[in-house]
Specification:
single chain, about 130 residues, mainly alpha
Length: about 130
């Protein structure tokens, strides 16, 4: 029974017949909604604006952010540590140290971040 159904589907596929009915998709956002979102966000690009838009259009904030990203207007908040300082990667610290010393140190990235920060601070203090 299954093989007859499978053969029928294969014949329908190669003959160009439609197996399933075509489904028309309704857009999640209308053009007017998108224009309004983009204008509001460009006027005030904050998380509060995104939350306001989400409640206004009965969407999730993640959906609003995704749409704004797709439209090319969303600006992500810069990443910061608990103290509010910008996040610095170990590779950036290593490159700062290597540039200050003028030497390439291959295994330096294996050091802890605290040690790298301390070393970068001392190297920068000596080079000034």
């Amino acid at each position: 029974m299954k093989t007859k159904n499978l053969i029928k589907q294969i014949k329908a596929f190669f003959s160009g017949d439609k197996i399933m009915t075509e489904v028309t998709r309704t857009p999640n956002y209308t053009d007017a909604m998108v224009d309004s979102m983009v204008a509001d966000y460009q006027d005030n690009p904050t998380k509060d604006t995104v939350a306001k838009l989400a409640s206004e259009f009965n969407k999730t904030t993640r959906s609003i952010v995704a749409k704004l990203v797709r439209e090319g207007v969303y600006v992500a908040a810069p990443r910061v540590t608990k103290t509010g300082a910008p996040v610095i990667r170990k590779s950036e610290l290593v490159s700062q140290i290597q540039d200050a010393l003028g030497v390439e140190l291959v295994s330096l990235e294996k050091a802890s971040k605290a040690d790298l920060e301390k070393l970068a601070w001392h190297v920068a203090g000596e080079s000034k």
